[in-house]
Fold:
Amino acid sequence: MANSSSTDVKVLGAWPSPFVIRVRIALNIKSVKYEFLEETLGSKSQLLLQSNPVYKKIPVLIHGGKSISESLIIVQYIDEVWNSGPSILHSDPYDRAIERFWAAYVDDKLFPSMKLINTAQGEEKAAIVEQAIEGLVLLEEAFQKSSKGKAFFGGDRIGFLDIAFGSMLGWLRAIEKMGGVKLLDEAKTPGLVQWAECFCADGAVKGIIPDTEKLVEFAKILVKMKGAPLGKN
Amino acid sequence: MAEVKLFRTWSSPFPLRIVWALEVKGIEYEMIYEDLSNKSSMLLQYNPVYKKVPVLLHKGKPISESLVILEYIEETWKSKTPSLLPEDPYQRAMARFGAKFGEDKILPLIWEAFIKQGKEQEEALVAVHGNMKYLEVELRGKKFLGGDAVGFADLAFGWLANLVSVFEEVTGVTFIDCEKFPLLLTWMQNFMDAPKIRDTWPPRDKLITKFRALRETLIAKEPK
Structure:
């Protein structure tokens, strides 16, 4: 299944969501044309409620009329369906296990702790920032091991963990700015600092990760709307 | 020296998923029992991030997180039937989604219902029943979530088959009733009795004692 018309593939999403960004990068890697259906902030379209009745969240990939939800599951689906394009996951089962482990870590531990930085104050904030940095240091070690001197977690090309973690870089920068903190730095995470530059400059990623300023403005709107700076998708 | 080792505890349902996968596929392995109140240096070395079970050790290389381990087993022992995941990418995505749904929307609520009382317990049960409706629909016309044979999603949900009745006995509350969830209850019985699965369950009386004590401790800690 190498080609498809753009109407065959739809992505339900929103520009600020890092989870949606994952899906768009994966489709770009495979050179798959798709229709991007942007959800309006504060309301959920009929199509979203129909295609993801369980979670009612973005992203949803609709391919040939079938819906798939949950960003990391969608990325694996994309890799398996468009298998003539460049691979997203490693070919070796152990390397795949390592990238799945760290992708789950990003979702279960790293991103939640990053989000808490926005609402925390004083001592609590310092503790949360330290926790987030510790997590990034773990990812730095993982990067050194899996990149084997190359630019990405996936080696020469962007892979599954690059997508899982790299999709968070827009918000990471925004949180640094809003919180007046440094999360990625040359001293503790030199490899990741370099990696972040390479990732954002990659052809499949360019233009997908929003500018820091745009995200900071968006965060302010969210606070006004919900009283919380970041929703979970 | 066994090529495959599994770090587990006697009671935790997460390593049991791995036991089932290895048994169902007929892969030889050695079990290493951990006492989580006194973790071995091996466990800390092999799972430094979470320090938890299960950990699968294959040819000296460790893998953690039960759903990650299940995918590893499926991909490494590709030729060993039965397959845990279907061939078709959409069906695979659905199986993975089912497993994630269980982790996010069923397990935490069942646990909440178990460790709480009164209104909080009721609210958790109402919420989980709302989610269980999806499972009930999924099971229509199927013996297992994987179809005729046990698959990835069945292994992910398998903990329901024995722990729910343990929780019901300890709390004296019905968690899953047969009028609302007949297919789910049938699935639980089928899974409980499935070949290769039926001999793996931890002793029920020990589980009741353990979870009763755990619940009492947690309730005592609750702010009044």
User: Anything to note?
Assistant: Chain A is about 55% helix and 5% strand. Residues 9-82 of chain A form a domain with the Glutaredoxin fold (CATH 3.40.30.10).
